[in-house]
Specification:
Chain lengths: ~350, ~260, ~280
């Protein structure tokens, strides 16, 4: 278990112009589970390869407990990676697969046997020693892969979308299992995923990786409710952005004036956002209301999802059930409750303007 | 019940493949088998024994085996890293490298052998076992590389990475992971190299300068001699090692798949 | 990477350069010190020696290579399609049987045909047993004949398995769904073969057939064993002149050999184009 510092890591692959990672910095506290979230191609997998030492960064440093590990070989680093595919060695049985790490360290067969049995207990598959990887289900294979990673008691566990190829039920099961085991063993963990729900459910903190940089890092709830930048906001499912000038708690937009709760200064161009589930839809006017027309509505079970055209703005609202459905083509009012409108930090907006 | 065509095709397939061995057997172990007798009246092992025991036969068998084994081992050794790079990496000049390996697989040994003939004479390599092995490498290395590159194209390096982060050393990964995963392809590539070198006539003739005598050369001179018994006996001796090698590696041939590009 | 490129590239490249130099009259052991196209002139339009034999040989080579290739392709197609419909153990055995073909080098195969088809061979003996012929001379000349039938039979029987394996690989790399989709849309098995299977394997078959053509066109052993003194296939002609004790003929042999190599490279280039297409269609 270690405190991990990733310091200004940069990496550009030969023959490419854009860096995959661009001065990426992040701290992971000992025992913490940080989820690394980002669209495909944002450099997630590269980052894991740098941390394990499979590849070297062009610039920057990696510290485990304050000491640089760049010169430590991957097989001595103790940063164990678990892939999307289980990569169980097909020619070894379950016990030999799990025990692989101990065997290459020269542990005695007796110790290995004992540890393998212990790990099989922890992952909930006792007595599976003699099975071949091909006889296991996808979920079981991933559990074995997890056991194989844990048996060496790594400083850092890296999970590279390990549940992606599994179906939903198995996936939920394993999410719970991994979280439980991670907490029990107190093992520092980085979980890479592009599944927002998975990241929020499992992580102590979430880091958004966009264009090779950290676009945002915070506790899941804070990041979900008040993302600091537009790209981060889009990533957590926010699509309604309101631009205007801000003065005396009022945002003047092209669609009308909106009251906002802010102690910020007056500004000529301010950007506010709101989560879709906080937007209300009603057929009579009210405070902070913008008139619009329903151009799409979908019944999603737990809520109704509206698309409402208000001028050139398309508002996506998520109205919780029970509610009466406003049919397509109806004129409605979209309500933006002041307490839910939040300002987006300019400094971050500039940062991610390329997306 | 299976359809009749299946049996017919199968009969033809297996029949054609078994026929040469039976035919050589008939000719090699018969005595006083004059036209128009359909089958030999007397059977004997005498001429076969005589030919096999002939020191010249023994020497050329040894030369053939030595050259073929050495060529295939060297091809694997030199070809393995090249195939890995070619199969796994995209790099500048990949096309050129590919072309350099592709050309020797289509340009006939005739042209290569005739070209190398003078060069090797000047270098003093003509007529030496080493020179012959070197010339055999021109076709065997490319075939080895293409076979292995095909294997590496569907190879997943993450198996190695997994072992690496679990604490295995490079050497250990190579022997415990890479080799074991690649083994079927490695066996098949080695087999191809062996067969190509084994059946090579022209390169041995043109580089060996009559000093290096292998079984194909002996066979050719037997054919001009025209004695069916000695031809058949030598032919049996000549196909025996390939038959054994293929039988031994049948498992891997099936595992490897069917992209066989061997031609000689 | 580097050692392999260095070794193969150097040996192969130098062999071509030396070959070219020899065909231009240098390094042949004669006292010529200047480049000369004489060998090529003698080969292509000479009125004696090699010049009289080159064109008939080229024609004969094209005939043998062309017919062998067409027959092999025509034979390989049904074998591969049939094999693809087999399953389980039988299929494995059949695939193995095709690979078994590798065990017999062309030289051995040619010897087998010689012993089987010659006028005192097994087939002639069978004819005698059935009372069809009395003397070996009564039996038709099937090998070492003017039309090169023995050579063609050798190549066809050897190359059918080779091409069948290539086509089989193409078939097996296809997602099976297309056939199912076609059936689902009302295609009969025959239509499925014509409209779905054939278009999928055609690029591979053409590419493989061109390789067969290149190989047959440039191989030495089989025509050397099963061929006539005249007309000879080009490789036999080339080696004969190259090995001629009169060193002036060396250049001519080398020139023929380079002409063969040039033809082969062109054919291989076309084959590659089709192979690429086969790659895309998968």
């Amino acid at each position: 278990m270690a405190n991990i510092d990733l310091i200004s890591l940069s990496k550009t692959y030969p023959g490419q112009i854009r860096p995959v990672l661009d001065r990426f910095s992040l701290n992971i506290a000992s025992g913490e589970l940080v989820a690394l979230l980002g669209p495909s191609g944002s450099g997630k997998s590269t980052l894991l390869k740098l941390i394990t030492g499979i590849e070297r960064p062009d610039m920057g440093d990696i510290h485990f407990d304050g000491k640089s590990v760049l010169s430590v070989a991957p097989n001595k680093r103790g940063a164990v990676l678990m892939f999307q595919k289980a990569y169980l060695f097909p020619f070894l049985n379950v016990a030999e697969n799990i025990g692989f790490g101990l065997k290459v360290m020269g542990e005695s067969p007796k110790t290995i046997r004992r540890e393998v049995a212990r790990l099989l207990d922890i992952i909930g598959l006792p007595g599976m020693e003699k099975r071949k990887p091909s006889q296991l289900s996808g979920g079981e294979q991933q559990r074995i892969a997890l056991a194989r990673a844990l048996i060496v008691q790594p400083h850092l566990l890296l999970l590279d979308e390990p549940l992606n190829s599994l179906d939903n039920t198995v996936r939920m099961n394993l999410q719970e299992a991994i979280q439980r085991i991670q907490r029990e063993l107190g093992i520092t963990t980085i979980l890479v995923t592009h599944d927002l729900n998975e990241a929020m459910a499992m992580a102590d903190r979430m880091a958004l990786l966009i264009n090779g940089q950290v676009a945002a890092v915070d506790q899941p709830m804070r990041l979900f409710q008040q993302p600091p930048s537009e790209s981060a906001a889009r990533f957590v499912g926010i699509t309604t952005f309101l631009k205007g000038s801000l003065a005396h708690g009022t945002l003047r937009t092209d669609y009308g004036n909106l009251v906002v709760n802010t102690n910020g200064h007056a500004a000529n161009s301010a950007l506010f956002a709101i989560r879709p589930e906080h937007i209300q839809v009603q057929q009579h006017p009210g405070q902070n209301a913008i008139p619009g027309k329903v151009v799409g509505c979908m019944y999603r079970g737990e809520h109704i999802e509206y698309q409402i055209a208000a001028g050139d703005l398309t508002v996506r609202a998520r109205v919780p059930m029970p509610a009466t459905m406003v049919p397509h083509g109806e004129n409605v009012f979209v309500i933006f409750p002041p307490e839910y409108l939040f300002a987006i930090n300019e400094q971050f907006v500039r940062h991610s303007s390329t997306t | 019940m299976k359809a009749l065509p299946t049996y017919i095709i199968r009969f033809l397939l297996y029949g054609v493949l078994a026929a040469p061995l039976l035919l050589f057997g008939l000719y090699a172990f018969s005595e006083h088998w004059f036209f128009p007798a359909f089958l030999p009246k007397d059977w004997t092992t005498a001429p076969f024994t005589r030919i096999v025991m002939d020191p010249q036969t023994g020497n050329s068998l040894a030369a053939s085996l030595g050259i073929a084994i050495l060529s295939s081992l060297l091809s694997l050794l030199v070809g393995f890293p090249a195939a890995r790079t070619l199969g796994l990496r995209n790099f500048r000049g990949r096309q050129v490298a590919w072309l350099i390996f592709f050309l020797p697989t289509v340009v006939p040994p005739l042209a290569v052998g005739m070209g190398l003939n003078i060069l090797f004479l000047r270098l003093g390599l003509a007529g030496t076992l080493f020179g012959v092995v070197l010339s055999h490498l021109v076709p065997t290395i490319p075939y080895t590389i293409f076979t292995l590159a095909g294997v590496f194209a569907s190879y997943d390096e993450n198996f190695e990475h997994q072992a690496w982060v679990l604490g295995a050393t490079r050497l250990r990964i190579f022997f415990n992971i890479t080799l074991r995963l690649i083994l079927p392809g490695l066996v098949v590539a080695g087999l191809f190299a062996f067969l190509i070198s084994w059946s090579q006539y022209l390169l041995t003739l043109l580089i060996g300068s009559g000093q290096v005598l292998t079984l194909p050369l002996l066979l050719f001179s037997a054919i001009s001699g025209g004695n069916p018994t000695s031809i058949a006996a030598l032919a049996l001796l000549f196909v025996l090692p390939p038959v054994l090698v293929i039988a031994a590696s049948a498992r891997y041939l099936n595992q490897h798949g069917n992209t066989v590009r061997e031609q000689h | 990477m580097a050692p392999a490129i260095l070794l193969v590239g150097t040996l192969f490249g130098v062999s071509l350069i030396y070959g070219l130099a020899q065909s231009l009259g240098l390094l042949t052991g004669t006292d010529q010190r200047t480049l000369s196209m004489a060998a090529y002139q003698n080969v292509l339009s000479g009125s004696e020696g090699v010049g009289t034999e080159f064109w008939p040989s080229l024609g004969f080579s094209l005939w043998i290579a062309g017919v062998s290739t067409l027959l092999s392709a025509a034979g390989a197609l049904p074998v591969a399609v049939w094999l693809n419909h087999q399953s389980g153990r039988g299929r494995q055995m059949d695939t193995l049987a095709l690979n078994w073909n590798l065990a017999f080098p062309h030289l051995v195969w040619a010897i087998g045909l010689l012993l089987f088809f010659s006028q005192s061979g097994l087939l002639a003996r069978l004819a005698a047993l059935l009372g069809w012929i009395q003397n070996p001379a009564d039996f038709p000349v099937l090998v070492r004949d003017r039309l090169g039938m023995g050579i063609i039979v050798d190549y066809v029987t050897k190359e059918i398995p080779f091409l069948a394996l290539i086509v089989l690989a193409a078939l097996r790399s296809q997602p099976e769904d297309y056939g199912v989709v076609a059936t689902n849309l009302g295609a009969t098995p025959w239509q499925r073969l014509c409209y779905v299977t054939l278009p999928q394997i055609l690029p591979s078959l053409i590419s493989g057939s061109l390789l067969v053509f290149a190989f047959v066109f440039s191989a030495y052993e089989v025509p050397a064993v099963l061929g006539m003194p005249y007309p000879r296939m080009l490789p036999v002609l080339a080696l004969d002149f190259f090995a001629n004790p009169d060193l002036h003929h060396r250049a001519e042999g080398m020139a023929i050999s380079l002409i063969i190599a040039a033809v082969v490279m062109v054919v291989a280039a076309i084959s590659l184009r089709y192979e690429k297409r086969a790659g895309y269609s998968q």
